[in-house]
């Protein structure tokens, strides 16, 4: 059957090879980190943690804060669920149940935490406790 | 939800030359591609891209090029990075059996879903076998 042959070619293969040579492929290589990948940012007063979760609706993601850690639990479904008679020609996205914990490096004020999910990016803002904010100490003469 | 993706005829940009010149710092998004009886379905992870932030072009050589721009403002003070967010680019050569004039697009939670129907003469037919 004609459609058993590969229906398209990926024009980026050469570019991928070049990326690998330049060792910049990390973020693009298949699943280099457990799902979901996280970025963390720190300012004087707060930590910002982002989880990159495209394809996950708010209802399919659970956040649990315990002491100074947050655990992300959820599931990313497969596009095959909507196309049961289909077959994968490319399968790069991870479809998994996941549970991943991030421990903040200093105390967070749990009652001030906010979380917002937009366009596949979850942004968590966690204010530092007073004790974990930087302090200035005057040197005595 | 039908998105505001612009489907443009890229005849004026001689296909492969542009593909090479576009490979600078853009991120290569992960994609699932499923072939069904009557179409090709792409699921592309585009975190940070809002509806209207992506452009799909198919040229006369059946090259489908996807470009997207994240509107996510990355905070200052990075201490750990596991994900890159930014400009995305990826291109594929479509088979002649797909009708590139009838691509539809949907957005779902940072994923772009493209559906490209097969031309009628290439659709799979299921024939019932009589006992």
Please give a handful of descriptors for the protein shown.
heterodimer; A: 141 residues; mainly beta; four-stranded antiparallel beta sheet; three-stranded antiparallel beta sheet; 1 helix; 9 strands; disordered N terminus; B: 131 residues; four-stranded mixed beta sheet
Written description of the protein model:
Chain A is mainly β and 141 residues long. Chain A is 6% helix and 36% strand. In chain A, strands 2-3-9-8 form a four-stranded antiparallel β-sheet, with no helix packed on it. A three-stranded antiparallel β-sheet of chain A has the order 4-5-7, with no helix packed on it. In chain A, a hairpin with a 3-residue loop joins strand 2 and strand 3 (46-52). The longest helix of chain A is centred in the N-terminal third of the chain and has 9 residues, at 13-21. Residues 1-8 and 22-29 of chain A have low confidence and may be disordered. With 131 residues, chain B is mainly beta. Helix content of chain B is 5%, strand content 39%. A four-stranded mixed β-sheet of chain B has the order 1-4-5-7, with helices on one face. In chain B, strands 2-3-9-8 form a four-stranded antiparallel β-sheet, with no helix packed on it. The longest helix of chain B has 7 residues, at 15-21. Mean pLDDT of chain B is 82; it is low at 1-21. Strand 2 (38-42) of chain A pairs antiparallel with strand 6 of chain B, so a sheet runs across the interface.
């Amino acid at each position: 059957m004609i459609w058993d042959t590969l229906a398209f070619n990926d024009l980026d293969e050469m570019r991928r090879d070049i990326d690998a040579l330049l060792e910049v492929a990390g973020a693009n290589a298949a699943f280099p980190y457990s799902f979901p990948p996280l970025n963390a940012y720190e300012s004087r007063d707060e930590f910002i943690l982002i989880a990159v979760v495209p394809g996950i609706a708010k209802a399919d993601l659970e956040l649990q804060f315990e002491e100074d850690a947050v655990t992300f639990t959820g599931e990313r479904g497969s596009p095959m669920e909507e196309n049961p008679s289909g077959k994968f020609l490319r399968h790069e996205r991870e479809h998994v149940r996941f549970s991943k914990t991030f421990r903040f490096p200093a105390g967070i004020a749990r009652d001030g935490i906010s979380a917002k999910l937009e366009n596949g990016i979850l942004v968590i803002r966690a204010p530092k406790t007073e004790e974990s904010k930087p302090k200035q100490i005057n040197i005595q003469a | 939800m039908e998105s505001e993706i612009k489907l443009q005829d890229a005849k004026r940009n001689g296909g492969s030359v542009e593909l090479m010149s576009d490979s600078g710092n853009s991120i290569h998004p992960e994609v699932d591609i499923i072939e069904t009886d009557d179409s090709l379905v792409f699921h592309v992870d585009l975190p940070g891209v809002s509806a209207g932030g992506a452009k799909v072009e198919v040229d006369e050589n059946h090259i489908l090029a996807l470009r997207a721009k994240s509107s996510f403002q990355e905070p200052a003070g990075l201490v750990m990075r596991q994900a890159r967010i930014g400009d995305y680019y990826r291109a594929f050569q479509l088979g002649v059996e797909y009708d590139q004039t009838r691509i539809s697009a949907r957005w779902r939670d940072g994923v772009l879903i493209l559906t490209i129907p097969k031309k009628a003469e290439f659709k799979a037919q299921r024939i019932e076998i009589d006992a």
